[in-house]
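Example record for the data management plan.
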Amino acid sequence: MSSLPAAGRTPRAQAPAATPSTTTVILAVAAFVIVTTEFLMVGLLPALARDLSVSVATAGQLVTLFALVVMLAGPPLTAWLSHLERKRLFLSVLALFAASNAVAAVAPNIWVLAVARMVPALALPVFWGTASETAAQLAGPERAGRAVSTVYLGISAAMLLGIPLGTVAADALGWRGAFWALSLLAVLVAVLLQLFMPTTAATAPVRLRTQARILRDPAFVANVLLSVTVFTAMFTGYTYLAEFLERVAQVPAAQVGWWLMGFGAVGLAGNWLGGRWVDRQPLRTTAVFSLMLAAGMLATAWLAATPVALAFALGLWGIANTALYPICQIRVMKSAPQSQALAGTINVSAANGGIALGAILGGASLSSWGVGSVALLGAAVAMLAAVAAVALGQWLNQRPAKPD
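Corresponding structural encoding:
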């Protein structure tokens, strides 16, 4: 389990001047466009609700709809489509996102917009799981972790910057203009993939029941549950970070979006660190960054009244937060080398479950003890994740090795 295997799909015909690293960078840009489509909505909600004459709470259900579709549809769809040639699959996903974002941009009412949001939610987890696997296979086992972390640079950037970008885009372009921009970006990335990505060999379809055997492995299930715990910790605090900055740190409302953008930009350093360390010690790396996440959340809660100290605390929180995205994905993929695409997508579904659970816990904490408590509760869950990672590592070391 020290590296992701390179066996399986291998490049069949490579475009001129194309290299695995070039393809990986383009996949990272594609990941940014695709995942931004999910998170941009949060920043667009006020303007969108006004334009479509619905409440913000009603418009917010579009975010819930997207997350539920990703969580429920991701694993079966990925198992069904994972045998397809990857270049064709990725081009189809990007075409779908371009079309759906264009429909969202001209949606006359909330119902058309809901359909335009639901359709790409079906494809997002398929891309998320298979892009990670493809990058690992193109890079080879020695650089698999770094390749996956490069793809996750786009995913992490979208998750961390999508909300503040939505806020800024709503002011500059309007919510319809933001969707048009995403549609155009999807088309441009599709052109780049067509030009530079090598064609990979398709494989024979594998029955869903056969792929789902990984769910019988207690080690795999434990790794997925660990991801749920980690993402619960992350989003217990991050979901309400804007509210925390405004009410506890007294950041002016007009500056909150820029603070969030800074949080994400500084945090992207964690993506590089996580990719470098996770290949050799995935569980230990999970524990270390979970403890760092807890420390950053606690420091943010304690230092909120001092802007300079708050900036450093948020930087620590952001680095750990971003590092844990690729760490969790690579760790779960390593635990099921025989079915990495499905394993990656199951982890995406688990992550969305953790996101939802974190938002629920944070909301309950906010209602009961005030917005300042969300960082403290998130830190407690992060420490629980660190303990769980250490315990899982000890159990795996004592577990008899399975025969090949």
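Summary line stored alongside the record: The chain has two domains: 17-205, 214-398.
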